[in-house]
Amino acid sequence: MAEHPHATLVRRGYEAILRSDMDALRGLMTADVTHHVPGSHPLSGDFKGQDAVIGRYGRLFQETGGSFRADLRSVYVDGRGHAVALHHITAEREGRRFRGDGCLVLRIVGDRITDVDECVEDIDKQDGFWG
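RE: above sequence
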């Protein structure tokens, strides 16, 4: 049985991030995409538009000297434009290591991602690492 197109789209997004291929990632999102990041650190908040979202991913790599990884574990879809992606994050920054699980809840219209809500395992841990 073939994978649902929304699951394939999400996998392509994670692959683009791991390759630092921001042009490929840009092609998977609408121009007005929004990424909502929980917490109270410099990389949290609402990022609206492709440039803001791509810029945030660039900062993740910059802040971690390129060590940031989001290893996709599972993708779940409802066939009505929603997907949930479970992942494991690893990163190193300023001599500290981060390991944690989280997920993205994505809204998809047609063949493009329009909205991303990020959920994390431990907001305080995230704030401490990125703050």
